[in-house]
Amino acid sequence: MYLLESAFIAIRSFFEAGGDVLWAILAVTTLMWTLIIERFWFFRWVLPGLERRAIEEWDQREDTTSWFARRIRDQLISEVSLESHRYILMIKTLMAILPLLGLLGTVTGMILVFDVMAFAGTGNARLMAGGVSAATIPTMSGLVAALSGLYLATYLERRAGKEVQRFEEMLVHH
After folding, report:
1. d(CA 152, CA 149)
2. What are the Cα distances from residue 164, in Å, to 42, 65, 67, 68, 109?
3. I want to staple 18 with a disulfide (CB 3.0 to 4.6 A). Which of 92, 107, 137, 152 is the partner?
4. Calpha distance 124→121 (Å, rounded)
């Protein structure tokens, strides 16, 4: 119980020291990771069923060589491609927003430092330290959160391309 309580106090102190921008960074990071997990779920559980249904639809066709049949095949491939690439741009966008939110935290923290300097002068380092931590913690948090999704966003984008290419080859050979 003590360990849980001390962890909660440490997290609360971190958020108090970092300022309100940390809550926005937490929300964006949570959304980004939710979408990343959803994509892994999609590739593992949803995509095989989608491909199976598309292949069954293709196999039920009598004509697979005419111009019209090739357009149907292109449509099936396009649908799989669209579903495979869904949310990847959103993940990359959220990843790009996180450092900007960190920068916003830096600016708001520096405003606190300048307010302290205007009120108490430059001689009170203890008062200025609160603003400095509110300026640096969000910057670090935004960068760490963005970097946490960088590898997986690239991996998911490549995987989507490979899955579409694999499905296209499967459909052509059917």
Report:
1. 5
2. 13, 21, 21, 21, 46
3. 137
4. 7
d(CA 57, CA 44): 21
Are 108 and 152 in contact by the 8 Å Cβ rule? The answer is no
- Report the distance separating Cα 84 and Cα 163, nearest Å: 8
Cα-Cα end-to-end distance for the chain: 60
The helix (H) or strand (E) run that includes residue 62 is none
The two three-digit tokens of residue 120, written as one number: 């108490």
87: region left, alpha or beta (phi > 0 left; psi from -120 to 50 alpha): left
Write the CB contacts of 64 (distance below 8 Å, at least 6 apart in sequence).
58, 73, 174
Specify the residue for token string 């935290």: 105
| pTM score over 0.85 | yes
